[in-house]
Each structure stands twice: as structure tokens, then as C-alpha cells.
Amino acid sequence: MEASLLLKFGAIGWVGGSLLYGLLKNGEQLYSWLGEKGEGQIQQMAAKLDLMFIEVSEKNLIRFYYGYLIALFALGVYLLAPSIGGAFTFGLIFVAIGWKLPLKIINILFNARVKKFVLQMVDGLSLMSNGLRSGLNVPQAISIVQNELPNPISQEFGLILSQNKLGVTLEDAMSNLSKRMPHDDIEMFTTSVNILKETGGNLAETFDTIAYTIRERIKIEAKIAAMVSQGVLQGIIVVLMPFALGAILYQIDPERIRPMFTTIPGWAMLLFMMTLQFLGGWTIWKIVQIKV
């Protein structure tokens, strides 16, 4: 018993000493690297939030992000509080896994905004086509869409008009739209407006053609999504099943499963399991992703 305690405390001391030595030798470089990574994440989040017309000060964003990382580390420590090594290790694992999560969530929201914009373009292009046939020019037709349709198309078209009033050419304002909202259909719309304004042509018919193209593509995507939905559900179940079984076993017999989280072989098995889970989930996700 004394030998096992001595071995345990010796291992903890060795790990702690190694970490301390590493921090003393490379602490400045590590701090600089972490600072650059964190600053990069904050800048990307601020840029995406600005594109979504969400005003958040950089100071509040910094407070949120670093508070979130501290909360992640505290959660990992809390889950394995009796084990010093396991608690510290899990805290670092939680931070390593979740430090990009806020940016990923913001990217998901941004992609949903772009998708909603593309769906609104079908009605927006129809309104613009009718407006052009009634004798309006392009800025006036854009103004009708801004007044009649909700966000995000109202915000984006309103920004186009605001930039145009401040002296930016309509062509440049359209190009800025395609940069803010990266999507093939939006690129097709802005390019057609810019080209036809320079060379001449029937914009109303072009808008009708673009609206028809977008509508048909949406139908195809909806059909594909329905066909692969079963595979997506199966992938989610397969990925979540080990975690659910682990939670159930921990509730039934915690002493039997505790070595998985408190011993070095258990940590190695967890790392191996997480690697396989990631590879399996990534493979399933790639299989069910069909681009039109």
C-alpha cells in the first residue's frame, strides 16, 4: 500500500516537475503562442459578428472568450476532482477540444444567415424583376426589396444603398455584397448585375432566370437532404453511443469504471477511443455531404 502511494505521488511529482521545467524553459514562447491563437480566434469571431450586424465590443468579446476557457478547464477539473492528475489532464483536454467551439458556432450561424439570404433571393429577384419591368432603375428595385422583405436581405440591400449614397459605385457595392456573403448564387447575381449594367441587356429576364435556377437547386438539395437524413441520424447515434454507455455504467457501478479516468492506462484508452470516435464521425460526415 505504501509503495503504491509512493509510486502515485512520485508520478504526480514527476509530471508536475516536468511541466514546471517546461514552463520555465519555454514559458514565454508558449504564452506568446497561446496569445496569438486566442487573439486570432477573437478577431475572427469579431469579423463574423460584424458581418451579421451584431455589435459586440472587442473588450466584451475578450472577457467572454477567456471566461469561457476558464469555465471549460474548471468543468474538467470538477468532473475528476478527487484525482489531481486526472482533473488537471481533463481540464486541459476540455480546453483543447472546446477552444474553437465559439468560432464554430458563430460560423454555423453565419452560414445559416447566408442560406436564409439565398432563400430570400427567390422572392427578392422576382420583386426586382417586376420593378424593372415597371420602369424603375436598379437602386429603386433594390429599395423595394429592402422595404418589403425581412432580414438578412433587408440589411444587406440596405447596406448596398447606403454605400451607393456615400459615393461607392453600384458595381463596387455589389462586389462587396458577394464578399460579405460568399455563395455561388450571390456571386452569380452580383456578377450579372455588374456585367449587364456595363454591356446592356435585359436585367428583368436575367433575374427571372437566376430565381428559377436558385429555386430548382433548392429543390434538389432538399431531396438529397431527405435521402441522406437516415445516414446522418445513424452517424449521430454511433458517435454518441459510447458516451451514453459510459455515463450509464458510471451510474450503475462507479468504482469499476473510475480507473478509466484516474489511471494512466485508462487515460491512454480514452485518448485512443476519442481518436477513433473523431475519425469515425468525420468519415460518416464526409460520406453524407453531397454538394450540388
Describe this entry's structure for a reader.
This protein has 292 residues and is mainly alpha-helical. Among the domains are: 35-99; 122-211, no CATH class. It is built from twelve helices and no strands. Helix 1 (2-51) packs parallel to helix 4 (101-133). The N and C termini lie far apart (64 Å). The mean pLDDT is 82.
β-strand number: 0
Shape: elongated
* Average pLDDT rating: 82
User: What sequence of helices (H) and strands (E) makes up the elements?
Assistant: HHHHHHHHHHHH
Give the radius of gyration.
Answer: 27 Å
Continuous helix count:
12
What percent of residues adopt helix (DSSP H or I)?
over 70%
Please provide a brief summary of the model.
The protein has helices spanning 2-51, 58-79, 84-98, 101-133, 138-148, 153-165, 170-180, 184-199, 203-252, 254-257, 259-262, 264-288. With 292 residues, the chain is mainly alpha-helical.
